[in-house]
Design a protein that fits this description.
36% helix; Rossmann fold; 8 helices; 271 residues; binds adenosine-5'-diphosphate; binds magnesium ion
Protein backbone atom coordinates (compact mmCIF):
# COMPACT_ATOMS: atom_id res chain seq x y z
CA UNK A 1 0.00 0.00 0.00
CA UNK A 2 1.37 3.44 -0.85
CA UNK A 3 1.60 6.18 1.74
CA UNK A 4 -1.30 8.04 0.11
CA UNK A 5 -3.48 4.93 -0.03
CA UNK A 6 -2.72 4.32 3.64
CA UNK A 7 -3.56 7.91 4.53
CA UNK A 8 -6.86 7.71 2.63
CA UNK A 9 -7.77 4.28 4.02
CA UNK A 10 -7.30 5.42 7.61
CA UNK A 11 -10.62 6.78 8.92
CA UNK A 12 -10.58 6.02 12.69
CA UNK A 13 -13.60 8.01 13.84
CA UNK A 14 -13.65 9.32 17.40
CA UNK A 15 -15.82 8.93 20.44
CA UNK A 16 -16.96 12.25 21.88
CA UNK A 17 -18.37 12.73 25.35
CA UNK A 18 -19.90 15.74 27.06
CA UNK A 19 -20.45 15.29 30.79
CA UNK A 20 -22.63 17.75 32.67
CA UNK A 21 -21.47 20.61 30.48
CA UNK A 22 -22.65 24.08 31.39
CA UNK A 23 -21.87 27.41 29.77
CA UNK A 24 -22.58 30.87 31.13
CA UNK A 25 -21.96 34.01 29.09
CA UNK A 26 -21.60 37.43 30.60
CA UNK A 27 -23.78 39.39 28.24
CA UNK A 28 -24.71 43.05 28.25
CA UNK A 29 -27.82 42.29 30.27
CA UNK A 30 -26.06 40.14 32.84
CA UNK A 31 -25.34 36.44 32.88
CA UNK A 32 -26.88 34.13 30.30
CA UNK A 33 -27.04 30.42 31.08
CA UNK A 34 -26.59 29.23 27.49
CA UNK A 35 -26.12 25.54 28.35
CA UNK A 36 -27.34 23.70 31.40
CA UNK A 37 -26.11 20.20 32.31
CA UNK A 38 -25.53 18.83 28.81
CA UNK A 39 -24.51 15.16 28.80
CA UNK A 40 -24.14 13.40 25.48
CA UNK A 41 -21.98 10.69 23.92
CA UNK A 42 -21.29 10.28 20.22
CA UNK A 43 -19.99 6.82 19.49
CA UNK A 44 -17.32 6.13 16.90
CA UNK A 45 -18.73 6.73 13.44
CA UNK A 46 -22.05 8.04 14.66
CA UNK A 47 -23.95 10.88 12.95
CA UNK A 48 -25.75 12.99 15.56
CA UNK A 49 -27.89 16.04 14.80
CA UNK A 50 -28.62 18.78 17.32
CA UNK A 51 -31.94 20.51 16.67
CA UNK A 52 -33.84 23.25 18.41
CA UNK A 53 -34.91 26.86 17.92
CA UNK A 54 -32.53 29.75 17.62
CA UNK A 55 -30.78 30.51 20.91
CA UNK A 56 -31.00 27.03 22.43
CA UNK A 57 -27.21 26.66 22.47
CA UNK A 58 -26.50 24.52 19.41
CA UNK A 59 -23.60 26.65 18.17
CA UNK A 60 -22.29 26.98 21.71
CA UNK A 61 -22.05 23.18 22.00
CA UNK A 62 -20.29 22.98 18.65
CA UNK A 63 -17.83 25.70 19.62
CA UNK A 64 -17.00 23.93 22.87
CA UNK A 65 -16.32 20.68 21.01
CA UNK A 66 -14.22 22.60 18.48
CA UNK A 67 -12.25 24.06 21.39
CA UNK A 68 -13.05 27.62 20.30
CA UNK A 69 -14.52 28.35 23.72
CA UNK A 70 -14.36 26.78 27.19
CA UNK A 71 -17.16 25.20 29.20
CA UNK A 72 -18.01 26.91 32.50
CA UNK A 73 -18.72 23.57 34.17
CA UNK A 74 -18.42 19.90 33.26
CA UNK A 75 -16.02 18.32 30.81
CA UNK A 76 -15.65 17.35 27.17
CA UNK A 77 -13.44 14.51 25.98
CA UNK A 78 -12.45 13.06 22.63
CA UNK A 79 -11.38 9.42 22.86
CA UNK A 80 -10.92 9.92 26.59
CA UNK A 81 -8.69 12.99 26.24
CA UNK A 82 -9.91 16.30 27.59
CA UNK A 83 -10.69 18.94 24.93
CA UNK A 84 -8.67 22.04 25.82
CA UNK A 85 -8.46 23.98 22.56
CA UNK A 86 -8.76 23.63 18.81
CA UNK A 87 -7.08 20.73 17.04
CA UNK A 88 -6.70 19.09 13.65
CA UNK A 89 -8.65 16.07 14.92
CA UNK A 90 -11.81 18.25 14.84
CA UNK A 91 -12.76 20.19 11.73
CA UNK A 92 -15.61 22.69 11.63
CA UNK A 93 -17.82 23.73 8.74
CA UNK A 94 -20.09 26.78 9.01
CA UNK A 95 -23.05 28.17 7.10
CA UNK A 96 -20.80 30.52 5.15
CA UNK A 97 -17.95 28.70 3.51
CA UNK A 98 -15.21 31.17 4.62
CA UNK A 99 -13.01 30.24 1.68
CA UNK A 100 -10.05 32.29 0.50
CA UNK A 101 -11.20 34.16 -2.62
CA UNK A 102 -7.65 34.59 -3.92
CA UNK A 103 -7.11 30.81 -4.05
CA UNK A 104 -8.77 28.32 -6.38
CA UNK A 105 -10.71 25.28 -5.15
CA UNK A 106 -7.56 23.16 -4.97
CA UNK A 107 -5.67 25.94 -3.18
CA UNK A 108 -8.36 26.16 -0.54
CA UNK A 109 -8.28 22.42 0.14
CA UNK A 110 -4.48 22.48 0.20
CA UNK A 111 -4.64 25.26 2.76
CA UNK A 112 -6.47 22.89 5.09
CA UNK A 113 -3.63 20.41 4.63
CA UNK A 114 -0.73 22.80 5.11
CA UNK A 115 -0.10 21.83 8.72
CA UNK A 116 -0.49 18.11 8.26
CA UNK A 117 2.93 16.63 8.92
CA UNK A 118 4.80 13.97 6.95
CA UNK A 119 3.57 14.86 3.47
CA UNK A 120 5.35 16.46 0.54
CA UNK A 121 3.69 18.88 -1.91
CA UNK A 122 2.83 16.19 -4.43
CA UNK A 123 1.24 13.99 -1.76
CA UNK A 124 -0.79 16.94 -0.47
CA UNK A 125 -2.01 17.61 -4.00
CA UNK A 126 -3.05 13.99 -4.43
CA UNK A 127 -4.99 14.02 -1.18
CA UNK A 128 -6.67 17.35 -2.00
CA UNK A 129 -7.58 15.95 -5.43
CA UNK A 130 -9.07 12.84 -3.85
CA UNK A 131 -11.37 14.91 -1.62
CA UNK A 132 -12.39 17.33 -4.38
CA UNK A 133 -13.33 14.25 -6.39
CA UNK A 134 -15.24 12.83 -3.41
CA UNK A 135 -17.40 15.97 -3.19
CA UNK A 136 -17.99 15.93 -6.95
CA UNK A 137 -15.70 18.79 -7.95
CA UNK A 138 -12.99 17.00 -9.91
CA UNK A 139 -13.68 19.21 -12.94
CA UNK A 140 -13.46 22.40 -10.90
CA UNK A 141 -10.17 22.05 -9.05
CA UNK A 142 -8.72 25.14 -10.76
CA UNK A 143 -11.92 27.21 -10.55
CA UNK A 144 -11.76 30.39 -8.53
CA UNK A 145 -14.17 30.81 -5.66
CA UNK A 146 -16.11 33.64 -7.32
CA UNK A 147 -16.80 31.33 -10.28
CA UNK A 148 -18.49 28.75 -8.06
CA UNK A 149 -22.15 28.57 -6.97
CA UNK A 150 -23.11 28.55 -3.28
CA UNK A 151 -23.50 24.78 -3.32
CA UNK A 152 -20.12 24.29 -4.96
CA UNK A 153 -18.49 26.56 -2.39
CA UNK A 154 -19.92 24.44 0.39
CA UNK A 155 -18.52 21.38 -1.42
CA UNK A 156 -15.08 23.00 -1.41
CA UNK A 157 -15.51 23.75 2.29
CA UNK A 158 -16.49 20.13 2.90
CA UNK A 159 -13.46 18.86 0.99
CA UNK A 160 -11.25 21.25 2.96
CA UNK A 161 -12.69 19.96 6.25
CA UNK A 162 -12.28 16.32 5.25
CA UNK A 163 -8.80 16.54 3.75
CA UNK A 164 -6.81 16.63 7.02
CA UNK A 165 -8.72 13.44 7.92
CA UNK A 166 -10.27 14.69 11.17
CA UNK A 167 -11.63 12.18 13.65
CA UNK A 168 -14.81 14.16 13.99
CA UNK A 169 -16.56 16.59 11.68
CA UNK A 170 -18.50 19.50 13.21
CA UNK A 171 -21.10 21.15 11.00
CA UNK A 172 -23.07 24.25 12.00
CA UNK A 173 -26.07 24.77 9.71
CA UNK A 174 -23.84 24.14 6.68
CA UNK A 175 -26.68 24.00 4.15
CA UNK A 176 -29.01 26.68 5.56
CA UNK A 177 -28.08 29.34 3.02
CA UNK A 178 -28.58 27.07 -0.02
CA UNK A 179 -31.64 26.63 -2.21
CA UNK A 180 -33.76 23.51 -1.69
CA UNK A 181 -32.55 21.61 -4.75
CA UNK A 182 -28.87 22.18 -4.01
CA UNK A 183 -29.49 21.18 -0.42
CA UNK A 184 -31.09 17.93 -1.52
CA UNK A 185 -28.05 17.03 -3.58
CA UNK A 186 -25.79 17.76 -0.65
CA UNK A 187 -27.87 15.58 1.68
CA UNK A 188 -27.26 12.71 -0.72
CA UNK A 189 -23.55 13.47 -1.04
CA UNK A 190 -22.98 13.90 2.68
CA UNK A 191 -24.64 10.54 3.39
CA UNK A 192 -22.56 8.84 0.71
CA UNK A 193 -19.37 10.38 2.13
CA UNK A 194 -20.41 9.46 5.67
CA UNK A 195 -20.92 5.85 4.59
CA UNK A 196 -17.63 5.72 2.68
CA UNK A 197 -15.43 7.57 5.15
CA UNK A 198 -17.15 6.56 8.40
CA UNK A 199 -16.66 9.84 10.25
CA UNK A 200 -18.17 10.78 13.57
CA UNK A 201 -20.35 13.80 12.74
CA UNK A 202 -21.95 16.40 14.99
CA UNK A 203 -24.40 18.35 12.85
CA UNK A 204 -26.33 21.41 13.99
CA UNK A 205 -29.56 22.54 12.33
CA UNK A 206 -32.87 24.19 13.13
CA UNK A 207 -34.47 22.14 10.32
CA UNK A 208 -35.95 19.03 11.95
CA UNK A 209 -36.62 17.20 8.68
CA UNK A 210 -33.00 17.72 7.66
CA UNK A 211 -31.89 16.26 11.00
CA UNK A 212 -34.12 13.21 10.54
CA UNK A 213 -32.81 12.75 7.00
CA UNK A 214 -29.17 12.80 8.08
CA UNK A 215 -28.80 11.63 11.67
CA UNK A 216 -28.51 8.28 13.38
CA UNK A 217 -29.89 10.18 16.36
CA UNK A 218 -31.57 13.55 16.73
CA UNK A 219 -31.00 15.48 19.95
CA UNK A 220 -33.73 17.98 20.73
CA UNK A 221 -32.75 21.08 22.70
CA UNK A 222 -34.86 23.87 24.11
CA UNK A 223 -33.73 27.37 25.09
CA UNK A 224 -33.46 29.49 28.27
CA UNK A 225 -31.44 27.70 29.45
CA UNK A 226 -30.21 25.40 26.68
CA UNK A 227 -31.09 21.88 27.72
CA UNK A 228 -31.36 18.49 26.09
CA UNK A 229 -35.03 17.59 26.12
CA UNK A 230 -35.17 14.31 24.26
CA UNK A 231 -33.08 12.08 22.04
CA UNK A 232 -34.66 10.28 19.08
CA UNK A 233 -33.16 7.33 17.20
CA UNK A 234 -33.74 7.39 13.45
CA UNK A 235 -34.33 3.85 12.33
CA UNK A 236 -34.51 4.32 8.58
CA UNK A 237 -32.16 2.75 6.04
CA UNK A 238 -29.59 4.91 4.21
CA UNK A 239 -29.35 6.61 1.86
CA UNK A 240 -32.41 8.57 2.89
CA UNK A 241 -34.26 10.94 0.62
CA UNK A 242 -35.50 14.17 2.21
CA UNK A 243 -38.81 13.69 0.33
CA UNK A 244 -39.33 10.14 1.57
CA UNK A 245 -42.70 10.11 3.37
CA UNK A 246 -41.19 7.84 6.03
CA UNK A 247 -39.25 10.87 7.33
CA UNK A 248 -42.48 12.77 7.85
CA UNK A 249 -43.78 10.77 10.78
CA UNK A 250 -40.71 11.23 12.98
CA UNK A 251 -40.33 14.85 11.84
CA UNK A 252 -43.83 15.74 12.99
CA UNK A 253 -43.36 13.83 16.24
CA UNK A 254 -40.19 15.80 17.06
CA UNK A 255 -41.82 19.07 15.99
CA UNK A 256 -44.80 18.39 18.26
CA UNK A 257 -42.49 17.59 21.18
CA UNK A 258 -40.54 20.80 20.62
CA UNK A 259 -43.74 22.88 20.64
CA UNK A 260 -44.78 21.14 23.84
CA UNK A 261 -41.45 21.92 25.55
CA UNK A 262 -41.59 25.55 24.44
CA UNK A 263 -45.12 25.91 25.78
CA UNK A 264 -44.16 24.43 29.14
CA UNK A 265 -41.20 26.77 29.27
CA UNK A 266 -43.09 29.97 28.63
CA UNK A 267 -43.20 32.45 31.51
CA UNK A 268 -46.65 32.80 33.04
CA UNK A 269 -48.54 35.79 31.58
CA UNK A 270 -48.60 38.83 33.86
CA UNK A 271 -51.74 40.88 34.51
P1 LIG B 1 -28.11 28.57 18.62
O1 LIG B 1 -26.90 28.23 17.85
O2 LIG B 1 -28.90 27.37 19.07
O3 LIG B 1 -29.00 29.55 17.91
P2 LIG B 1 -26.25 29.86 20.45
O4 LIG B 1 -25.40 28.73 20.90
O5 LIG B 1 -25.70 30.76 19.41
O6 LIG B 1 -27.68 29.30 19.99
O7 LIG B 1 -26.64 30.77 21.70
C1 LIG B 1 -27.18 30.26 22.91
C2 LIG B 1 -27.44 31.40 23.88
O8 LIG B 1 -26.21 31.95 24.32
C3 LIG B 1 -28.23 32.56 23.31
O9 LIG B 1 -29.07 33.06 24.30
C4 LIG B 1 -27.17 33.56 22.94
O10 LIG B 1 -27.67 34.87 22.96
C5 LIG B 1 -26.12 33.32 24.00
N1 LIG B 1 -24.75 33.61 23.53
C6 LIG B 1 -24.08 32.92 22.59
N2 LIG B 1 -22.84 33.41 22.41
C7 LIG B 1 -22.72 34.45 23.28
C8 LIG B 1 -21.67 35.36 23.61
N3 LIG B 1 -20.48 35.28 23.00
N4 LIG B 1 -21.91 36.29 24.54
C9 LIG B 1 -23.11 36.37 25.17
N5 LIG B 1 -24.13 35.54 24.93
C10 LIG B 1 -23.95 34.58 24.00
MG1 LIG C 1 -26.32 28.78 15.90
Amino acid sequence: MTKIARELANTEPSKLTLEHVGKTFNGRHGEVLALDDISLTLNEGEFVCLVGPSGCGKSTILNLVAGLDNATTGKLTLDGRRIKGPGRDRMVMFQEAALFPWLDALGNVLFGLRLKPGLNDEERRQIAGFYLDLVGLSKFTRAHIHELSGGMRQRVALARSLAPNPKILLMDEPFSALDALTREQLYGDLQRIFTQRRKTILFVTHNIREAVCLGDRVVLLSPHPGRIREVFTVDLPRPRDINDPRLAELTSRITARLKQHLKENQPAPTE
